[in-house]
Amino acid sequence: MQLFIIISLICLLFPVHFNNGRKLSEQEALLGIKSAITDGPYNTLSYWNSTMQPDHCTWYGIICSNSSVISLDVSNLNLSGTVSPDIAFLTNLQNLSLAQNTLSGPLPSSLSSLKALRVLDLSDNHFTGPLPLSFSEILELRHLDLTQNNFSGEIPECFSQLRRLTTLFLNENNLHGSIPEFIGDLQELNALGLSDNNFSGRVPQKLGTNGKLSYIDLSRNVLTGNIPEPLGRCRPLSQLYMQHNLLNESIPKGLFGLLNLTDVDLGDNLLTGEVEIHDSVAVNLKSIFLSNNQLSGTLPPSIGNFSALQFLVLDGNSFTGSLPREIGNLHNLCTIDLSSNSFYGSIPRESGNLQQLAYIDLSSNNLSGKIPPQITNSTMLMRLNLSRNHLAGDISWLTGGVDAVDISYNMLQGALSVFLPNLRGEGDNLLLKLSWVVYALDRKLSDDYHLLFQAKR
Ligand SMILES: *[C@@H]1O[C@H](CO)[C@@H](O)[C@H](O)[C@H]1NC(C)=O
Ligand SMILES: *[C@@H]1O[C@H](CO)[C@@H](O)[C@H](O)[C@H]1NC(C)=O
Ligand SMILES: *[C@@H]1O[C@H](CO)[C@@H](O)[C@H](O)[C@H]1NC(C)=O
Ligand SMILES: *[C@@H]1O[C@H](CO)[C@@H](O)[C@H](O)[C@H]1NC(C)=O
Ligand SMILES: *[C@@H]1O[C@H](CO)[C@@H](O)[C@H](O)[C@H]1NC(C)=O
Ligand SMILES: *[C@@H]1O[C@H](CO)[C@@H](O)[C@H](O)[C@H]1NC(C)=O
Ligand SMILES: *[C@@H]1O[C@H](CO)[C@@H](O)[C@H](O)[C@H]1NC(C)=O
Ligand SMILES: *[C@@H]1O[C@H](CO)[C@@H](O)[C@H](O)[C@H]1NC(C)=O
Ligand SMILES: *[C@@H]1O[C@H](CO)[C@@H](O)[C@H](O)[C@H]1NC(C)=O
Ligand SMILES: *[C@@H]1O[C@H](CO)[C@@H](O)[C@H](O)[C@H]1NC(C)=O
Ligand SMILES: *[C@@H]1O[C@H](CO)[C@@H](O)[C@H](O)[C@H]1NC(C)=O
Ligand SMILES: *[C@@H]1O[C@H](CO)[C@@H](O)[C@H](O)[C@H]1NC(C)=O
C-alpha cells in the first residue's frame, strides 16, 4: 500500500505544462505534425495542404467527428522524422496509428494531453528512449502497441493507472527489469506481448486471474520462477508463448484441458514434472512445443484425444514409457519430434494412419523392435530420423519416396544387402532426392556411404 502511494506521488509529480500557453487549432497542429515528418515515397502528406483542401477532415488518414479529429492513421507510408509535440492539440483524438514507418526519437510527453486516446499504435518504427511516464495519464487507453522499436528502460509502475488496457504489446524492444505485478491485476487485459526484451524476475503470479487473457507472448527474455498457476484455469487462453526463458517448476495444471487453447510453446526453459492430461481435452490445440526442458513421465493414451494437433514437439526432455498406439488418432499431425528422450518399446504401426506427416524424428531414444513399414505411409513424408535407438530387422521396404532418412546407430545388421540394391536400383535420382545422407547400419558402413554420397554429388 505504501509503495502504491509513493508510486502515485511520483506519477503526480509530472504536471502537464507542455504547451507554454500556446494554443493551436487542430489544422495548425496537423501541419506542425507534418513539418516534423519527412514524407515517404508516396508523398501522401503533400495532400495535407490547406490551400488545396481547406477542410483538414478530408485529409489523408484523418477521421473527424463533429468537425474534430478523432482518428489519425498514417501507418505504413515509409514516413521518417519525429513526432511533433503539437500532436497534443488534437484533444479529441481516440485512435493514433503511426505504425510501420521509420519514425524515430523519443516520444513527446505531451502525448499525455490526449485524454480521449483509446488506441495508440506506434509499432514497427525506430523510436528510442524510455517509455514516457506521462502515458499513465491517458486513462482511456485500451490498446497500446509499441512493438519493434528501440525503447529502453523498465515498464514504469505508474502504468498501473492504465486500468482499461485490453492489449499491451511491447515486443522486440530493449526493455529490462521485472514485469510489474500490476499487469496481473489488469481486469480487461486479453493480449499481452513482451517478447524479445530482457525482462527478468518472476512472471506476475496473478496473470490469468482476470479470466480474460487469451494471448500471451513472453518468449525470449530471461524470466525465472514458475509459470503462474491461474493460467491453467483461464478459459479464454488460446496462445501461450514463453519459450527461451529460465522458467522452472511444472506446467500449470489444467492447461491442456482449456478448450480454446490452440498454440503452446514453452520450449527452452527449465520446466520439470509431468505433462498432465485430465478428462477435459484441448480439442482445438494445434501445436505443442516443449523442447529442451526437464519434463518427465509418459505420453498417456489420452494424447490421442488432441484431435486438432499438427505439431507435437517434445524433444530434449526426460519423457519415458512406450509410444501409445493412440498417436495414430492424431489425423492432422504433420510434425512429430520426440527425439532425445527415454522412450522405449516399439514404434506403433498405427503411425501409418497419419497421412499428413511430413517430419518424423524419434532419434536418440531407446526404441526397439522392427520399424513398421507403415511409418512411411504418408505421401507428405519428407524427413525420417530414427537414428540412435535399438531398432532391428529388415528395412528392404524402404525405397525412396522420402527425401531424407537417418537410421544410423541402430541394430539393423544384415539389412544393408537388401537396402543398397534398392538405392542402386533407382540410381542417381534417389541419391539426389535424398537431401540427407542415408546413414545405415553401423557406423563404419555409414561412413562409407557418406563418401559415396559426396562422390555422386
Ligand atoms: C499547397 O498546394 C498549393 C497548390 O498546389 C501549392 O502551391 C503549395 O505550395 C502547397 N503548400 C504546401 C505547404 O505544400
Ligand atoms: C458537437 O460540438 C458542439 C459544439 O462543440 C457540441 O455542442 C455538440 O454537443 C457536439 N455534438 C456531438 C455529437 O458531440
Ligand atoms: C519503404 O522502406 C523500406 C525500408 O526502408 C524499403 O525497403 C522500401 O522499398 C520502401 N518502400 C518504398 C515504396 O519506397
Ligand atoms: C479505432 O481503433 C479501433 C481498434 O483498432 C477500431 O475498432 C475503431 O473503429 C477505430 N475508430 C476510429 C474512429 O477510427
Ligand atoms: C537502441 O538503443 C541503444 C541505446 O539505448 C543503442 O545503443 C542501439 O544502437 C539502438 N539500436 C538500434 C537498432 O537502433
Ligand atoms: C539483453 O541484454 C544483453 C546484455 O545486457 C544485451 O547484449 C542484449 O542485446 C539485450 N537483448 C535485448 C533483446 O535487449
Ligand atoms: C525456481 O527458480 C526460482 C527462481 O530462480 C528459485 O527460487 C526456485 O527455488 C526454483 N525452484 C525449483 C523447484 O528449483
Ligand atoms: C473461445 O473462443 C470462441 C471463439 O473465438 C469465443 O467465442 C469464446 O468466447 C471463447 N471462450 C472463452 C471461454 O473465452
Ligand atoms: C481420451 O482418450 C482415452 C484413451 O484413449 C479414452 O478412453 C477417453 O474416452 C478419451 N476422452 C475424451 C474426452 O475424449
Ligand atoms: C535403454 O534401455 C536399457 C535396457 O533396455 C537401459 O539399460 C537403458 O538405461 C535405457 N536407456 C535410456 C536412455 O533410457
Ligand atoms: C499403409 O499403406 C499400406 C499400403 O499403401 C496399406 O496397405 C496400409 O493399410 C496402410 N496402413 C495404414 C495403417 O494406413
Ligand atoms: C538424426 O538425429 C540424430 C540424433 O538426434 C542427429 O544427431 C542427426 O544429426 C539427425 N540426422 C540428420 C540427418 O539430421
Automatic annotation (TrEMBL):
Q: Which domain of life is it from?
A: Eukaryota
Stretches assigned to the Disease resistance R13L4/SHOC-2-like LRR domain: 109-258
Q: Where is the signal peptide?
A: 1-21
Q: Where in the cell is it found?
A: Membrane
This protein's major location comes to membrane
Topology in membrane: Single-pass type I membrane protein
Q: Name one GO biological process term.
A: response to other organism
User: Sorted alphabetically, which InterPro entries does this protein's record hold?
Assistant: Leu-rich_rpt, Leu-rich_rpt_typical-subtyp, LRR_dom_sf, LRR_N_plant-typ, LRR_R13L4/SHOC2-like
Keywords attached to this entry? Glycoprotein, Leucine-rich repeat, Membrane, Repeat, Signal, Transmembrane, Transmembrane helix
Q: Residues in domain Leucine-rich repeat-containing N-terminal plant-type?
A: 26-65
What are the annotated GO cellular component locations?
membrane
Similarity comment? Belongs to the RLP family.
Name the chain's protein.
Leucine-rich repeat-containing N-terminal plant-type domain-containing protein
The record lists the organism as Carnegiea gigantea
